[in-house]
Amino acid sequence: MTYSAAAGEFYPTQDSALLSQFNFVPGLPELLQLRQVHALEHATVWVLSEAQQRHDDQSLGGFSTPEGFFLYGAVKPDALRRAAQRALHRIQGGEWQLAVHPRCGTNLSVQLLLTAGCALGTAALLPKDPLSQLLSFGVATAATASLAPDLGQWAQRYLTTAIPFNLAIAEVGTSHDFWGRPAQFVRVHWQSA
Fold it and tell me: Which of 29, 66, 142, 184 is packed most tightly, with the most Cβ within 10 A?
């Protein structure tokens, strides 16, 4: 992560330092860039939601790749370009909370993993009669439902996003995603720090 909550400082070259020290690891540049693009995607959705004066505009969604991100929803390319630039400026300026979004797929993945792990764990540890098993699955589901949002945000903050200090926006245009759906695409490029 490029932000230290204890020190209150950003470390803009952390991803570059990781890349220079571990450049022999296959796929590392793409992974580091994907984390930064993912944060920029979230920040852009927040900025667009603010512009429309909605707390969380559920008509917007995104999908990140190492080359940029797809944005789904009714947004004009010029408005998206301005929002992406504004989002990049704000997140680089210290508004790191923009990198975390409540509707991120990371949250769902964390909840599914927790639910499966708790269900399997309780099934293995508790008596095998149907009533005990049913109750244990209910308790596991309730417990994970209360833990998952916080753990999902933690996973976003420390695993699936990074402050995009090494990114610049190259272009914004209309495109089609991997499945052929129309979307806007914000193309980025990696900058050496």
Answer: 184
